[in-house]
Specification:
It comes from Pseudozyma flocculosa. Pfam families: Ribosomal_L3. Belongs to the universal ribosomal protein uL3 family. This is Probable RPL3 - 60s ribosomal protein l3. With 442 residues, this protein is of the alpha+beta class. Among the domains are: 49 residues, no CATH class; 122 residues, 2-Layer Sandwich (Ribosomal Protein L3, Chain: B, domain 2), CATH 3.30.1430.10. Helices cover 12% and strands 25% of the residues. The protein has 8 helices and 17 strands. Strands 3, 6, 7, 8, 9 and 10 form a 6-stranded antiparallel sheet that branches. A 6-stranded antiparallel barrel has the order 4-5-15-14-11-16. A two-stranded antiparallel sheet has the order 1-2. Strand 6 and strand 7 form a beta hairpin. The longest helix is centred in the middle third of the chain and has 13 residues. About 1% of the residues have low confidence.
Length: 442
């Protein structure tokens, strides 16, 4: 035990008394000892011992940088940049299709979600109607896997192509000679089509990815456009030889949407969004407005960067093009697949009234839906009449929402550009009566 108490709070302590009692004669020695007292600055306190006030605010940036550059899309039709993963064990099938956005309406259904407070209760949901006329297969493309990705090996076209798809290869169809594919069509008749058969065998031998060239039948819609949209649709399932035979069998034949998708399936929508032109920084990025008395405008970003580096960073919100961007929305559930010409396409087991999907007066800015259509939950990119790409989902959806079996109770077919609530023309005439003399029918 030490003869004298040691003060650990002091920076040093003396061992003189200890050394005097020893048989050795030494001078006092001062040994530095680290202080055990905590640093007030590191403890979050000031020199006066009071607690510092930490900043309480946070400022996340406005707008996502994941969609840069925000410029106009290079193409009007949505491009499929990735198809679902192929599974040879499944039967041969197509993975995508094109359609045209008709408009939106709303439906009523009973929610089937055990455990939820809304279980077995009626809910109202918005839906989008997409007209999908049957598409025509006119070719097949084979791709070879390389270290740098896929490379197209060869393309085989059908013997006969309609004028609506030939328009796609001309800038001015009216002034052209309309000679497209006239020489290529002779290959099918020369030597019993040996050159065509040779190219198909090359695809079977070397290729690992097979895609079908198909175009829409835009003349069957109410649109004024005559030029069909052409796209590649990947064929999944089965062996490569089975895929090529599947594509060859569908040459110059149509396939409808019911052969690609089924009800209650979850799909992805690829399209170009609605364009808004040149917009300011507040509308484009959602930045906060400056105070009311701000000089030279308040819908601005006051500071656009530091003095150095002497340039404006790409992360700074600026004005520019807003809308008409290429976007992919995933997880769109199909509520119904039917034909627009069917008088009961909007009828349900609960609402047995005979009514088609087209509302009174037609869909605003679109018209009447007479072909097959797909009804999906919620909204989707693009304006009316815009071509949409419907693709099988890349993900395997296992949530209760995705696996729920949807049963519609009521579909609204009232005019969406006014305040009327009549669902059918007969209902309107029954309520208002005959308002004009009808010409007698012969």
């Amino acid at each position: 035990m030490l003869p004298h108490a040691v003060d650990l709070d002091s920076a040093t302590f003396s061992l003189a008394s200890l050394l005097r009692s020893s048989p050795f004669s030494l001078s006092p020695v001062h040994i530095p000892v680290p202080s055990l007292r905590k640093d007030p600055a590191k403890e979050g306190r000031g020199d006066d011992g009071k607690t510092r006030r930490q900043p309480w605010y946070e400022h996340p940036r406005h707008g996502s940088l994941g969609f840069l550059p925000r410029k106009r899309a290079a193409r009007h039709r949505g491009k499929v940049k990735a198809f679902p993963k192929d599974d040879p064990k499944k039967p041969v099938h197509l993975t995508a299709m094109l359609g045209y956005k008709a408009g939106m309406t709303h439906i009523v259904r009973d929610l089937d979600r055990p455990g939820s407070k809304m279980h077995k209760k009626e809910i109202v949901e918005a839906v989008t109607v997409i007209e999908t006329p049957p598409m025509v297969a006119v070719g097949v493309v084979g791709y070879v896997e390389t270290p740098r990705g896929l490379r197209s090996l060869t393309t085989v076209w059908a013997e006969h192509l309609s004028d609506e798809v030939k328009r796609r290869f001309y800038k001015n169809w009216y002034r052209s000679k309309k000679k497209a594919f006239t020489k290529y069509a002779k290959k099918h008749s020369e030597n019993s089509g040996s050159s065509i058969t040779r190219e198909l065998e090359r695809i079977k031998k070397y290729c690992s990815v097979v895609r079908v060239l198909a175009h829409t039948q835009i003349r069957k819609t109410g649109l004024k456009q005559k030029k069909a949209h052409l796209m590649e649709i990947q064929v999944n399932g089965g062996s490569v030889a089975e895929k090529v035979d599947f594509a060859k069998e569908h040459f110059e034949k149509t396939f409808d949407v019911s052969s690609v998708f089924v009800q209650n399936e979850t799909i992805d929508i690829i399209a170009v969004t609605k364009g808004h032109g040149y917009e300011g920084v507040t509308a484009r990025w959602g930045t906060k407005k400056l105070p009311r008395k701000t000089h030279r405008g308040l819908r601005k970003v006051a500071c656009i960067g530091a003095w150095h580096p002497a340039n404006v960073m790409f992360t700074v919100a600026r004005s520019g093009q807003d809308g008409y961007h290429h976007r992919t929305e995933i997880g769109k559930k199909i509520y119904r697949i039917a034909n627009g010409s069917d008088e009961t396409s909007a009828s349900t087991d609960f609402d047995t009234t005979k009514k088609g999907i087209t509302p009174l007066g037609g869909f605003p800015h679109y018209g009447v839906v007479n072909q097959d259509f797909v009804m999906i939950k919620g909204s989707c990119p693009g304006v009316k009449k815009r071509v949409l790409t419907l693709r099988k989902s890349l993900q395997v959806h296992t949530s209760r929402k995705a696996l729920e079996n949807v049963s519609l109770k009521w579909i609204s077919t009232s005019a969406t550009n006014g305040h009327s609530s009549w669902q059918t023309k007969a209902e309107k005439e029954n309520f208002l009566g005959v308002r004009k003399i009808k010409a007698p029918t012969a």
